[in-house]
């Protein structure tokens, strides 16, 4: 009934450490996309300073996104990067709400919502990351944590703009730990997230929304994750720094 285009994305975080390495990695990843690859959208979220050289390196085979944005439009915000700045260099996708931003940089749901609104307002697309901590998971709170983060993160985004929104469910206990959620656990939270989106908007919005899984996705785990009905893609940290591994993830088999 509903066809959601698969979406494979990588998040380089604070890597790599030089422009030369970034260009080599981006072109290696682009090289893994062939005519026989799945019909999927592919994006890499990279450090700001590498965006333009990575764009040139991939030659339009995938999109180069930004790892974050400052919601202020302009002014006295030393060190910040605005949505118009990103838009002006051809960025389409921007991450918001990554657990590292929430934890290490103290970003709140309200601040993340401001980022989402600004990204949408500027005509770009946002990947909103949500997910529970280990303690919350153990107390069976994954669904309720995601409900709060979804409601607050999406606040004020109109239904007609949802085509420019994707959700990444990333259980914090699975990020960078090598402990990937089982396909069953991930599927169950994705299904819950979809029902929360149906409550916030409606069933059509929920069925159209792409919900990606993130947390230690690897060449070994991607296929079984992608077989789940409510898992529409992956947000990949560590394995996106290796062109062979990420290439294999892009070429997932359902
Ligand atoms: C991430 O940073 O979004 C992530 C999922 O990292 P990793 O794949 O390394 O767990």
From TrEMBL:
| Entry keyword annotation includes Transcription regulation | no
* MF GO annotations: triose-phosphate isomerase activity
Pathway of this protein? Carbohydrate biosynthesis; gluconeogenesis; Carbohydrate degradation; glycolysis; D-glyceraldehyde 3-phosphate from glycerone phosphate: step 1/1
Q: What is its EC number?
A: 5.3.1.1
List membrane-spanning regions. none
Enzyme category, top tier:
isomerase
Reaction catalysed by this enzyme: D-glyceraldehyde 3-phosphate = dihydroxyacetone phosphate
GO terms for biological process, alphabetical = gluconeogenesis; glyceraldehyde-3-phosphate biosynthetic process; glycerol catabolic process; glycolytic process
Cellular component terms (Gene Ontology): cytosol
- Provide this UniProt record's keywords sorted from A to Z: Cytoplasm, Gluconeogenesis, Glycolysis, Isomerase, Signal
Give the protein's function: Catalyzes the interconversion of glyceraldehyde 3-phosphate and dihydroxyacetone phosphate in the glycolytic and gluconeogenic pathways.
Please state which protein family the record places this protein in: Belongs to the triosephosphate isomerase family.
Report quaternary structure and partners.
Homodimer.
Q: Can you say what this protein is called?
A: Triosephosphate isomerase
